[in-house]
Structures are given as C-alpha cells and as structure tokens.
Design a protein that fits this description.
Layout lengths: L2 H29 L3 H25 L5 H21 L3 H29 L2 H9 L7 H18 L9
Helix pairs in contact: 1-2, 1-4, 1-6, 2-4, 3-4, 4-5
C-alpha cells in the first residue's frame, strides 16, 4: 500500500475536521438553529472520535489492516454522503458521529501502516510529517476549503476569499 494514499486519506479527514468550523453560520442558517447549536456538531464529532477510536481499535485488533482501512474510509464516506443529504439537525448530527467513527478508526491505522511500509530510514520522515504535526494544513487547506464549500453551497464568500 502506498504511503501517498494513506496521506491523502489523512489529509481529507483532517481537512474535514477544520472546515466545518468556518461553515457553522451557514449550517445554522440552513437548519434554522443557533450557531451554538451548530457548534455542537463539532463537539459531537470530537467526543465520538475520542471515545470510538480506542474502542474500535481494540474491537478490530485482529482484523487485517487493509480491511480496517477500507471499512474506516467507507464509514467516513458514508457519513459524508449522509451529511450531504441530511435535511435536519438530528440527521446531520448522526452523520457527523458516523464520520467521527470512520476517522477515529482510519487515522491511527493509517499512521501504523505508513510506518510499517516505510523503510527504516523513511519511517522517521513519515512520522515527522504525520497528521499530529500538521501545522501547515490549516494555513493552506482551511481557507480554500471553506471558500470552495461556501461557493458550492451558494453561501456568501468567507473572509479568507477576499
């Protein structure tokens, strides 16, 4: 398995976690809820990730890593599709929690697999550029992703697109 695909998955999952914060006012307006209620989508995602990740890691410990990654990404994608078609707050909340379960299973597995498939010299480089040390991601992907999402949703441009 190529480390590139693992990194691409990690980038998509990490970016999704940052993008929603900039879209909270638009989500609140679309669902006719307060911005603080929309902010609970971030809290629910974080709590589900924090609780679900270790539980799923233990439950799927004896399953092949490729299968775990496929399951995790399928869960993450299903959560995104569900969020896309969610017509109310409860469905959007449930879809965010489904995304968090997929993310919480994918990220640790992807990190472990990337270190395992890299050469001993490359493992240190892979670890150094892993998601926990991704200071450049928010500064590069966050503004463009929010502007793109706002454009696609028909919302007004974000402050970063001016």
């Amino acid at each position: 398995m190529s480390v590139f695909w693992l990194a691409l998955g990690a980038f998509a999952i990490g970016t999704e976690g940052f993008v929603i914060a900039g879209l909270l006012p638009a989500i609140a307006g679309d669902l006719s809820i307060s911005v603080s209620a929309a902010g609970q989508l971030v809290t629910a995602y974080a709590l589900t990730y924090a609780v679900g990740s270790p539980v799923l890691a233990v439950a799927l410990n004896n399953v092949d890593r490729r299968t775990v990654l496929a399951l995790a990404l399928a869960t993450f994608i299903a959560g995104n599709i569900a969020a896309m078609v969610a017509s109310n707050y409860a469905l959007l909340l449930a879809s965010r929690m489904l995304m968090a379960l997929g993310s919480g299973l994918c990220m640790p597995t992807a990190l472990a697999v990337s270190v395992a498939v890299a050469s001993p010299k490359g493992a240190a480089v892979q670890w150094r550029w892993s998601p926990p040390d991704s200071r450049l991601r928010p500064s590069s992907a966050f503004p463009s992703a929010i502007s793109s999402a706002a454009f696609l949703a028909g919302a007004r441009p974000s402050p970063w697109s001016r």
